[in-house]
């Protein structure tokens, strides 16, 4: 995952420089916004479809808004398998155990992925504060599927990134959003719902 780490460090340095210089300006809504969102859903490897192949991720992003309708987004995403728990209600307590399902019909007990995202974002205002948005672009991915310490599959490349959802933004620039996201990473595909918060300055 060395290529992605190098890109990630470069992106963090650029975003840090932009953020510090922008925060020195007046706190009015400007062309910049930063945000974070959580995603949870399902994963498929080579079109495998089975229960328990869940995934979760955290995504940090920066937007440069060219207008109220269009923006360019760059972001860093990191994710992996979501733990599956089964709970039983006994007479005096609730007992939960982690399920040790194998992923993707393979002898895999762990998978993780990282993405550098570059996407165009479009936004359509429904009211003064409510809007619908869509994102379409590319993700530079790097993932591993493992069984313990044994690496079963490793791949990197460029794939599709897409997201659509709803956003509510207050006058102070803070916004909350909910959406549906798709990341295509070659043989590995991850999709699911997202919840996030952002700040425009």
Report on the architecture of this protein.
With 201 residues, the chain is mostly beta strands. It is 11% helix and 63% strand. The chain has one helix and ten strands; from the N terminus they run αββββββββββ. The protein has one helix at 2-23, and strands spanning 32-45, 54-65, 70-81, 85-89, 94-98, 110-125, 130-147, 150-169, 174-185, 188-200. The strands form two sheets. It has an eight-stranded antiparallel β-barrel with strand order 1-2-3-6-7-8-9-10. The longest helix is centred in the first third of the chain and has 22 residues, at 2-23. The chain is globular, with a radius of gyration of 19 Å.
Summarize the structure.
It is built from 1 helix and 10 strands. The chain has 201 residues and is mainly beta.
Query: Helix tally?
Result: 1
Report the C-alpha radius of gyration, rounded: 19 Å
How far is it from the N-terminal to the C-terminal residue, by CA? Answer: 33 Å
Which term fits the overall shape? globular
Q: Estimate the strand proportion.
A: over 45%
Key words describing this protein structure:
eight-stranded antiparallel barrel, 201 residues, mainly beta, globular, 10 strands, 11% helix, 1 helix
Note the topology:
Blueprint: H1 2-23, E1 32-45, E2 54-65, E3 70-81, E4 85-89, E5 94-98, E6 110-125, E7 130-147, E8 150-169, E9 174-185, E10 188-200
Antiparallel strand pairs: 1-2, 1-10, 2-3, 3-6, 4-5, 6-7, 7-8, 8-9, 9-10
């Amino acid at each position: 995952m060395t290529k992605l780490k190098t890109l990630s460090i470069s992106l963090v340095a650029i975003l840090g420089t932009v953020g510090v210089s922008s925060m020195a300006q007046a706190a009015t809504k400007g062309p910049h916004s930063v945000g974070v969102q959580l995603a949870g859903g399902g994963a498929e490897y080579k079109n495998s479809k089975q229960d328990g192949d869940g995934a979760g991720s955290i995504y940090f992003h920066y937007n440069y808004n060219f207008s109220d309708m269009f923006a360019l987004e760059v972001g860093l995403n990191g994710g992996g398998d979501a733990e599956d728990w089964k709970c039983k209600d006994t007479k005096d307590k609730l007992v939960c155990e982690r399920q040790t399902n194998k992923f993707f019909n393979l002898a895999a007990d762990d998978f993780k992925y990282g993405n550098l995202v570059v996407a165009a974002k479009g936004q359509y205002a429904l009211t003064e504060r409510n809007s619908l948005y869509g994102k379409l672009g590319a993700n530079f991915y790097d993932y591993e599927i493992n069984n313990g310490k044994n690496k079963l599959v490793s791949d990197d490349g460029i794939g599709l990134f897409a997201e659509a959802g709803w956003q509510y933004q207050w006058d102070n620039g803070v916004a909350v959003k909910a959406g549906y996201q798709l990341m295509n990473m070659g043989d590995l595909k991850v999709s699911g719902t997202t919840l996030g918060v952002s700040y425009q300055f």
